[in-house]
Design a protein that fits this description.
- With about 400 residues, this protein is mainly alpha-helical.
- It has 3 domains: about 1-40; about 60-165, Type II secretion system (T2SS), domain F (Receptor-associated Protein, Up-down Bundle), CATH 1.20.81.30; about 175-399, no CATH class.
- About 70% of the residues lie in helices and about 5% in strands.
- The protein is built from 17 helices and 4 strands.
- Strands 1, 2, 3 and 4 form a 4-stranded antiparallel β-sheet that branches.
- A hairpin with a 6-residue loop joins strand 3 (about 25-30) and strand 4 (about 35-40).
- It starts with a strand and ends with a helix.
- The model is unreliable at about 35-55 (pLDDT under 50).
């Protein structure tokens, strides 16, 4: 028998939270110091703290979805699955999330509806794919596909983070070197040259005022940052301007193809997943189009979708739009002819995602030598200027 305090919206919510965590409340009363708190007593119950909408990271969301998909695919009901997820050993955020979803499920809401009330935990594409699976009666399959999709995202993120460790260390050490040169070496050299009536050589003269006036420079930098942020916020609210900006991004030499293939992979995977779940073609295409974040590409996909009800095949309306590579369009045509469009779209999405991952890894791999050469040249130039100034002190001594 253990007593504790749990924070909840109401008394019933506190009781449901305890049941969801595998505990058996015996007596629950309102706490005297807060109207929103309660004091439950249960078996093996440590003190719990519950909140309505916790934020989950990508790795936590992937693990949560994979375990939920495994339980549902095993024939466990949703309410029982959430009780298992909120059982012993669950983290506070997972406990809060599972308990909140359990409450909404018991209140009669669909799983996608309950998750849509928690945008901090579940992204829009996650909810859209799950809603499509529920519409086709394929909730377990949709959860499985979501778990696989999130696992791939976690893998890509981990690879990028691992590749950026060395550049981050290089930047940090270079910043330390520049700070030592500007705030230690240059102030020690300045009196020698000023006493001789000579300026510091080279770029050192421009950096000599930085130690004394850095607060002013920092304030100007912060002011410029705030102005740029406000300007971006204003531009972000203008749909036409943002569409032109997204179009410019798509035409960039290196980033443009990566953005187009990433959006194409997202569109193909979402459409294929929804079609596999039994969602009608137009509904699946509209939902997949809504998940395209680039406004310019989203408008292009919308133009394609509006031509499908005219009786033309999806592969035909995609030709000439430059949204997918020609080889991928031929695969879509094969999928339409064989009645395997959903599986073909998922296969295309996997191919595009692999290509995007490969290009990102190449760019990150190229970043390391570029940073090494660039930062090494900058620090080396400063050190050469300092060494030149030090060697010129001997000349000053004979004047």
């Amino acid at each position: 028998m253990t007593s504790g305090t749990i924070v909840a919206e109401e008394l019933d919510a506190a009781v449901e939270a305890l049941y969801g965590s595998g505990l058996t409340p015996i007596e629950t009363v309102l706490s005297s110091d807060s109207a929103s708190a309660s004091r439950p007593i249960g078996r093996n119950a440590p003190g719990l703290r519950w909140q309505s909408s916790p934020h989950l990271g990508l790795k936590e969301l992937s693990a949560f979805t994979t375990e939920l998909a495994a339980l549902v695919n095993s024939g466990v009901s949703l309410d029982a699955s959430f009780r298992v997820l909120a059982g012993a050993g669950a983290s506070p955020r997972r406990l809060a999330l599972a308990t909140g979803l359990l409450k909404d499920i018991l209140a009669g809401q669909q799983l996608s509806e309950a998750m849509s009330r928690r945008p901090d935990a579940f992204p829009p594409d996650y909810i859209a794919i799950l809603a499509g699976g529920e519409a086709g009666g394929q909730t377990a399959q949709a959860l499985t596909l979501l778990g696989e999709m999130l696992a791939r995202r976690v893998d890509i993120r981990n690879k990028i983070r691992g590749a950026l460790v060395y550049p981050a260390i290089l930047l940090a050490m270079s910043a330390v070197s520049i700070v030592v040169i500007v705030f230690v070496l240059i102030p020690n050299l300045t009196p020698i040259f000023s006493d001789a009536g000579l300026p510091l050589p080279g770029v050192l003269a421009a950096l000599a005022d930085l130690p004394d006036h850095w607060p002013r420079y920092l304030s100007w930098f912060l002011f410029g940052t705030i102005v740029c942020w406000l300007a971006y916020r204003r531009i972000a609210g203008h749909e036409l301007t943002m569409r032109k900006l997204d179009r410019l991004i798509c035409r960039l030499p290196v980033m443009g193809p990566i953005v187009q293939r990433r959006e194409a992979g997202q569109f193909a995977r979402s459409a294929g997943t929804l079609l596999e779940a039994g969602v009608p073609l137009m509904t699946a295409l509209q939902t997949a189009r809504s998940l395209v974040t680039n406004r310019y590409l989203s408008a292009r996909y919308s133009e394609v979708i509006t031509r499908v009800p005219e009786g033309r095949a999806l592969s035909q309306v995609l030709e000439g739009m430059e949204l997918l590579p020609p080889a991928m369009i031929r695969l879509i045509a094969v999928g339409e002819e064989t009645g395997q469009l959903a599986k073909m779209l998922v296969r295309i999405a996997s191919s595009l995602e692999g290509e995007v991952q490969s290009r990102i890894e190449q760019l990150v791999g190229l970043l390391t030598p570029l940073l090494t050469v660039g930062i090494g040249g900058l620090v080396g130039a400063l050190i050469l200027q300092v060494m030149s100034a030090v060697l010129s002190i001997n000349n000053l001594a004979y004047q």
